[in-house]
Design brief:
Layout lengths: L1 H19 L2 H11 L4 H26 L15 H7 L2 H7 L19 E5 L5 E4 L3 E2 L7 E2 L8 E6 L6 E6 L5 E6 L9 E4 L4 E5 L8
Antiparallel strand pairs: 1-2, 1-9, 3-4, 4-8, 5-6, 6-7, 7-8
Helix pairs in contact: 1-2
The structure holds zinc ion.
Length: about 210
Amino acid sequence: MKKVIILITLNIFFMAIAGCNSKNSLTKDGFTLNDSGNKSTGQNINQNINQNNNIMDDHQKKENPYYSRTDISKLDVPDSEWIKILPPEVYEVAREKGTERAFTGKYWNTEGIGTYYCAVCGNALFRSDEKFASACGWPSFFETIRKNSVIYKEDNSYGMNRTEVLCGRCDSHLGHLFDDGPPPTGKRYCMNSIVLDFEIGDKQESGK
Ligand SMILES: [Zn+2]
C-alpha cells in the first residue's frame, strides 16, 4: 500500500515538473512517465496528428487562391470568403480569434532550420532562429522576419490587457505578444501552431 502511495506521489511530482519546465525536460519526463505503455500511444497520436496536418496543408494550398509565399501585397478578404476556403480548425483561430490548447499544436516544440509562414495566406512571419524553447506550450518567437510581417492590436478580452498579433498581409489572428521573452528583444510572440506553416530548409526566408 505504501509503495502505491509513493508511486502516485512521484507521478504527480513529475507531472508538475513536466507542466512548467522547459520543453526538453517535458519530453524527457513525459517519456519516463509513460514507459509503462503510454509512450507508444502518444507517438501514434502524434503521427496521426502530423498526417492529418499534412493532408490539411495540401488541401489548403490547393484550394486557397490567396495563398502565396512571394506576394506580400495586403489582402482584403471578408470572413464570408475565408470560411469557404479555410479548414474549420484554422478558421476558428485565424478569423474567430480562438486559441489552441497548450502542448497540443504541431509546432510548440519543433526544432530545425526553416521559415514559419502564415497558414492562411503564406506570408513569411518568423525564422527558426527567432524561435525559442518556451515553457508555455505554444510556439514562441522573440522577433518577426520583417517589421511589417505582423500587425498589433490592443486586446482587452477576458478581463486582460494584451497585445494581439495579426498577420500583416491577411489580418488573421496569430496569437499574442508578451514582454517576458529572451534577449535581444525581450519579446515573446506566443503563437498558435494551427495558423503557422513551417517549411524546412537551409535557406531561411530573409526579409531584412
Ligand atoms: Zn496571413
